[in-house]
Amino acid sequence: MADGQTLGIERIGSSERIASLDVLRGIAILFILFMNIPGMGLPSFDLHDPRWPSWTASDQRLWWVQQVFLDGTQRGMLELLFGAGILIMARKAMTADGPVEVADLHFRRNLLLCVLGLVNAFLLLWWGDILLVYGIAATFLFAFRKLDARALLGWAALFFVGLVVFSYSNYDQGVQSRAAYERVQAATAAHRPVSADDKKLAEPFGERLTSLHTLPAADKKQADKARKAVAQHNSGFAGYWSGVAGYWLQIMGFFWIIEAEIVGTMLVGMALYRLGVIQGLARTRVYVALLVGGYAFGLPLRAIPSSDFINAIPGPHWEGILYDLSRLGVVIGHVALVQLVLRARVGRTLLQPFQAAGRMPLTVYLFTSLLMMWLVFAPWGLNMYGKLGFTALMDLAAAVIIGELAAANLWLRHFASGPCEWVWKSLAYQRRMPFRKASGGTEVPPGLVPAG
């Protein structure tokens, strides 16, 4: 390969990295475990109910905090960062004569990410993998690299409108089911005949109402479903693997909805990079406005249905129509909060450890799958599946996050990148990347690396 061609696809050097993006990525890739661990350690996908096997006051408080402040937000932060990363990697392909090798690199990186996603799902056994769907979405976003922020936000709006329409259809079904349930109750009380259509239409709301007033452990149908899922999980590798594959296939049934969310959010990330927001270049008042606006819009829309669930109020909740928009609002609020914290010296000191995790997110993410699915919750490991309540799971997640944060910082004292990143980049760039850290390398405090 000619020197000029090679220059077009040089990897991002340590001095070129935008440290605040690494901090954001580190927080997101670690804190996503708070959302993933119930699916890893409980038959939550079978029950769609967080109240198994316990629902103590502590469980309820922590679940509420998780739903309001964290649900979908760490994934959302990663999607924003992915969008920004597309523009960073394509920085030398913004002109008509930009090197085609940049496009080749983009496609190789994301196709390899898809492969890693399949490895995560079917070998490491984490059925909630995000790498595959991220790789697919990012593959097609290279074509948007030359658009300005306004155009990128316009395209993102189209995807979010589609998501709102989909959410409205679900809400409307809930409204119709509740109305039918009320008609059935009124007809029964008045000893009038009930139509078969109303009886069938009322079933979902009736089941929802019953489940909210009965804990899964006291509901024979739900308890049997949970015990069956745990028994399959513990039946050996074949049963464990088939259960994981089944969950993954069910999720893929919503593939287009998942991709619409991811693509829309990545486009917003690209726009925020164009505006200098996500990499910390905007003025302080911009971040204050984004923090206040994002939280003021998003948090109430998430708090109301979460509180209603705890109080056994069945809904349907119109707030659910705006779920994806409220999630985006909270995500942008989180990004603004981190950028504001990084503007203070004490804030940089507090958040700098997350920079290491953000430089080796693949390793952290895949190691978490290995640790949880092959040791902690595996039938041949500690066999804790279905045994820990929500509070215990959150405590376990916090302990793992602290351990991984320490390990990432220790690792990067001696090595240039994480082992999974090294393999991924070596394959993507088609040459062996540096593995050990060059002597004399120093970390740049978050927020002090230019975005050039």
UniProtKB/TrEMBL annotation:
Alphabetical list of InterPro entries matching this protein: Bact_Transport_Assoc, DUF418
DUF418 domain residues: 272-430
Transmembrane segments: 23-45, 121-144, 151-169, 247-273, 285-305, 325-342, 362-382, 388-412
Source organism: Sphingomonas ginkgonis
Name of the molecule in the record: DUF418 domain-containing protein
Keywords (A to Z) from UniProt: Membrane, Transmembrane, Transmembrane helix
Pfam families named among the record's database cross-references: DUF418
